[in-house]
């Protein structure tokens, strides 16, 4: 029963993240996303993944593996966009 509840929770939380990931991947727009929040979120999900591996819980492992991949992709896009904007701002100041 516990694995069933864990699996349902894992599916729901992972799927709830999917619309944000799809929107960012389609539009490549990360302006409204917080870099700090995504960095903390990705670190937290990575910790959940490690925890799942340590306790050998498949619902925790699978859900967090999928989520960390999506979050890391979005985080890398956010960092790239932030660096590009910063570079463009510096060039305008010259």
Indicate the mean pLDDT: 91
Q: Tell me the helix content.
A: over 70%
Unreliable stretches, pLDDT < 50, 5 or more residues?
none
Q: How can the largest sheet be summarized?
A: none
Structural class by helix and strand composition:
mainly alpha
The end-to-end span amounts to: 64 Å
Task: Work out the number of β strands.
Answer: 0
Number of domains: 1
CATH class equals Mainly Alpha
Instruction: Name the helix and strand elements from N-terminus to C-terminus, one letter apiece.
Output: HHH
Estimate the strand proportion: under 5%
What topology does this entry show?
Blueprint: H1 2-27, H2 35-55, H3 58-93
Helix pairs in contact: 1-3, 2-3
Organism: Henriciella mobilis
Membrane topology: Multi-pass membrane protein
Subcellular location: Membrane
Key traits:
0% strand, 94 residues, 3 helices, mainly alpha, Monooxygenase, elongated
Structure commentary:
This protein has about 90 residues and is mainly alpha-helical. It has one domain: Monooxygenase (Up-down Bundle). About 90% of the residues lie in helices and about 0% in strands. It contains three helices and no strands. Helix 1 runs parallel beside helix 3 and helix 2 runs antiparallel to helix 3. The chain is elongated. About 15% of the residues are buried. The mean pLDDT is about 90. One of its GO terms (cellular component) is membrane. Keywords: Membrane, Transmembrane, Transmembrane helix. This is Glutathione synthetase. It is found in: Membrane.
């Amino acid at each position: 029963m516990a694995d069933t509840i864990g699996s349902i929770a894992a599916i729901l939380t992972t799927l709830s993240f999917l619309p944000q990931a799809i929107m960012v991947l389609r539009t490549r727009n990360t302006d409204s996303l917080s870099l700090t929040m995504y960095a903390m979120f990705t670190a937290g999900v990575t910790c959940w993944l490690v925890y799942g591996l340590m306790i050998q819980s498949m619902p925790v492992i699978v859900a967090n593996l999928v989520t960390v991949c999506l979050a890391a992709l979005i985080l890398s896009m956010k960092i790239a966009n932030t660096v590009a904007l910063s570079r463009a701002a510096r060039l305008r100041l010259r």
